[in-house]
Predict the structure.
Amino acid sequence: MKDGKLHILVTDDETAIRHFLKATLSVYDHLVTEAESGQKTLDLLVEERPDLLILDLGLPDMDGVEVIREIRGWSSIPIIVLSVRNREEDKIAALDSGADDYLTKPFGVGELLARIRGVVRRSSSGLMDGIYQTGDLKMDIGRRLVTIGSNEIQLTPTEFDILKTLFQKPGKVFTHRQIIDKVWNTHLGDESRLLRVNISNLRHKIEPDPNRPTYIKTDLGVGYRLNDNPEDASPRSS
Amino acid sequence: MNGDPKWLRSDQPAKQEPAEMQAGRSGRLMIFFGYAEGVGKTKAMLEAAFQRKSEGIDVVVACADARGKESEALIKGLPIWPLRRFEADGNISMELDLDGILARRPQLAVVDELAHSNAPGSRHPRRFQDAEELLAAGIDVYATVNVQNLESLSDIVSQITGVRVEDTIPDRIFDRADEIVLVDLPPGELIQRLKEGKVHHSGLEALEVEKFYRQGNLTALRELAMRRAAERIDDQMRSYMQSKAIVGPWPAGERILVSLSSHPLGERLVRAGRKLADELKAEWFVLYVETPGHLSMQPQNRARINHNLALAEKMGAKVYKVSGNSVVEEVLQFCQQYNITKIVAGRARRPRWQEIFSPSVLDEMIRKSGKVGVFVVSEDQETLEDARIRNWLPHRPLLRYLESLALVGVATWISHLIGDVIDPTNLVMIYLIAVVIAAIFLGRGPSMLASLISVVVFDFFIVNPRFSLAVADTQYLITFAGLLIVGLIISNSATLLRGQVEALQVRERHTQLLNRLSQELTGAATLDQVLEITLKNFSAVFEGEIVVFLSDGNHLRKRAATPHYNLNESETAVAEWAFKNAQPAGKGTETFPSAQSLFLPLNASQGVAGILGIQSQVIQEFIAHDQRTLLGGLTNLAALAIERAKFAQDAMQAETLRAAERLQSALLNSISHQLRTPLAAITGVLTSLSESEKARSENGKLTLKVREELIDSATQQANTLNRLVENLLAMTRLEAGIIQVNSQAGDVQDLIGAVINQMAESLANRNVILDIPPDLPAVRMDAVLTGQVLVNLLENACKFSEPGSPISIIVRQQGDELQIRVADEGIGIAPEDLPHIFEKFYRGKFTNQAAGTGLGLSICKGIIEAQGGRIWAESGAVRGAVLSFALPIYDDLRGEAGK
């Protein structure tokens, strides 16, 4: 991986999609390897050690979610799922099993490139302590301090933990379950409600307009993510 | 039945208005409705008119075709307005004198044969028009109509009978009738009457008569008539049920029986029964047991009974009249047969001494009622009438023999008292009286004993030498022989009589069961209703579990069963056998007698429609000869009704299929257009770009600006296409029931924020005004689906309003729901479109210029309603449209966040 040029493995059983992706990504100087099945994907990951995997879920030999689980057993390669399945259950299943991002077909090339940049950036960061910032929102994990501009925001421990979780990978969608697992260790069955209420409270504390949140975005039915580029008002269709 | 027509009335007789007849008031029309000439409509009508006349109503017979002895006798008792003579083309005919009757102004006019065509020269060509004029003048009309005279049915009738009926009346006449009285007579009896020349048939040739009066035809016509009448009643009942907000059939938990007597307490009993039934949501019955004492009942008591029975019927009870010797026995038997859980009975106030010496009917009922609860309504004031019902219950056998001996003792005592003045041969009569009493009340054995003992005692105490069995005068031997023989004959014949009475009672019960089933089945529209009624009635009659299999081509499938029916494979095999051989099988028959159930073929006109299985402890009783007719009758009724319902269902399925096909072709038309348009645009852009690339000279190449424009438009069209496909998928999923609504507590503010974020591109040039109050409660929703709804509504708002005009999203809490409104300032919705815009493929009047499938809003409606919410459209206050939906507030009282 040099100068933002990546070696990308593209897995899709549709030749048209593979060719289109190869052509498009090559324009941006990425090196593209193609695979059309789950098994081939696993083989190529070992043989060629690519930087990024773009994976379709509907594969002839195994389900994409299975492939992700398999990979996550031994690799932390960034995975972007690219699928026609647009149901939230499918998104949640893929994200929960370890995918880094999820994009539904049809998609715009610009969107895909942005996602690629996003997952690569997140995979390189990984510091636990320290100071994180997006827009005016700043979080100092070590000192447990959250500020908007120069104003200090008082958060409850739960709100702080939620924000910390989102800050670990800005831009990545965390499913409800992923957040709950990180923030509440036990499962009392009531966490969904608590999560919803805490997010609402958090927004009232940090968002300039809670009706149009800029920092914490909702992916309906899937989860929440921290907006890693609050100045950019452009949407993220998923 | 002895040839008298049975009356099935759709309603109680008209409450007669007071004598002052207002000209402005339209008269009431009562139609006596029959399935063929000869069932007794005219007779029934005349009887009713006679009744009115005896009530003091001014009745005039405008025209009546009274043939037959009974009708002639009836019409003589009524004032007849003479017919008017009409002369046209040399033909003389007699028609109803409309002007004469209008001038005479009776309160009630009797008009026979409503469908009759008047002779040329009359005011109206048709008699029903005369009747309409009478009604308009405020005169009540009694009229007769045959089923074949109904316009809507005349085609069917001519198909059934092959005879074309010319004289028809419009259905509106039938439908405007205030009351319909269905006059019914079994086809067999009608044919009998025809053979006896008792039927007058107008307008049919001799050949046609034969064609018309065939058993099959008549049965079909009869069903037609009953169904038409039932439809009317059904409508009345539905409107009644709606007006009283009664929901659906009552659950069959409790069943209440009001035991009615002629006592003045009766009305209170009926009302108490109704109240109890309402409270328990129970089915309720009113039973009146006609005892032999009824014959000597005072007229006012009899009238009261009829009044109370009518009242009960009006209040929704199922009314039964049975005859029997003992009220208690009959009531308890009825309870068993109909699974009654509670009895309402009255306690008449009686002198104290009577209470002690003879237990009342009520006491006996309470003692014997077992599990059935008895509710007692007491008389609160002394009433003068003595409405006791004599209790004739045959007691225990031994007691009866002792009683017969006591009777002989009494006879001896009387003979002893008067023996000095009366000749001993005449004293024999006193003994005979004792024997007769014993025969009537105590049965054959005791009365025979009484005969024998009488002879001995007569010899011992009366005949000289007294206190010895020796006889001085041998002529007394003839007296002995006479006493003995007459006594024995009386014993026997009285017993036979009893037997006959009991047999009659059984038959009456059977007729009632059949009528009940037939009535209920007539009202059933769907196969499921028919099956439900069949199961209910059969399980009540046979006190057991019932199963119904229906044939599905050549196979037999279980279609319905009572909850505890225990079906195993070997039983099913028996049912299969019964089906294949069209013969009864199983318990009580000679085929598979060891089976647990009796399986009866449901024989209908098109072969065996299915099999009815009965699992009952008492089934043997019903297979006995005298009960077999009941079994056969019930099964036949069920079979015919099932077949009819199946035909109707098949017809409906075919219709549904056709409707689905129509819808599909509409869908295909719409979709193919909607799919091709963006595809054409995309293909166009791609090919022109490709041509431009290939062009050699700069001339053929597109400028950068044009290329950008083309690419933008192609991208837009691709998005449209994608949206369309998603809508189609959503619709298909909704309709197939694949979309599972995952309703959870959700935050509306979060939802709106997420949707606006998702649509930021399409809303870029819009001023979206958010009016969301803080601290909203959570709602019960599926966030993803509701998000789709909001997206659809916002897209619509964009589509139908000018770019740059504002769009508002307003959230309000209203009671226990949260309302979300999307308001635009666009072209709005035409008022006539408002009720329809949520229908599939409906395109509003103003929508022509905007692309769309007419699917978006119907999907929204589907989604919102699946979540228990509602969605509606209004016009904006100034302009534009407001589309709103409401979702139920999540009912969670637990507090705020935090840990």
Notes: Residues 7-124 of chain A form a domain with the Rossmann fold fold (CATH 3.40.50.2300). Residues 84 and 105 of chain A are 5 Å apart (CA to CA).
